[in-house]
């Protein structure tokens, strides 16, 4: 059963593993565990993960600057 859940800081390490294995998803120096946790804190309610049992199988990382929203690291 796949569950869609809010993206939590404790999911960052597993999500980064998924991104590294996903063709077309580019990571930069800004993609550290600490910076991702801070990003999630600044953008509550916009970021989601899909889990199959306890394994992260999808992500939606979204940020909002007050006017526009951006999708980052969308992967399944």
Model description:
The protein is globular. It has helices at 12-21, 33-42; strands at 2-6, 48-52, 55-64, 69-75. A hairpin with a 2-residue loop joins β2 and β3. The chain is 26% helix and 36% strand. The protein has a four-stranded antiparallel beta sheet. With 76 residues, it is an alpha+beta fold. The model has no long low-confidence stretch (mean pLDDT 93). The chain has two helices and four strands; from the N terminus they run βααβββ.
Topology:
Layout: E1 2-6, H1 12-21, H2 33-42, E2 48-52, E3 55-64, E4 69-75
Antiparallel strand pairs: 1-2, 2-3, 3-4
The secondary-structure element order is EHHEEE
Look at the helices and sheets and give the structural class. alpha+beta
Termini gap: 15 Å
Low-pLDDT segments, ≥5 res: none
Total number of strands = 4
Described by strand count, sense and barrel closure, the largest sheet is: 4 strands, antiparallel
User: How much of the residues is beta strand, in percent?
Assistant: 35-45%
What's the helical proportion of residues? 25-40%
How many helices does DSSP assign? Answer: 2
Give average pLDDT, whole number: 93
Overall shape? globular
- Gyration radius, rounded: 12 Å
Features:
76 residues; alpha+beta; 2 helices; 4 strands; 26% helix; globular
In short:
The protein has 2 helices and 4 strands, in the order βααβββ.
């Amino acid at each position: 059963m796949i569950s869609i859940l809010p993206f939590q800081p404790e999911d960052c390490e597993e999500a980064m593993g998924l991104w590294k294995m996903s063709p077309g998803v580019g990571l930069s120096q800004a993609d550290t565990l600490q910076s991702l946790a801070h990003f999630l804190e600044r953008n509550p309610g916009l970021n989601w993960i899909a889990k199959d049992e306890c394994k992260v199988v999808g992500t939606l990382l979204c940020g909002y600057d007050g006017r526009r929203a951006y999708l980052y690291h969308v992967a399944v």
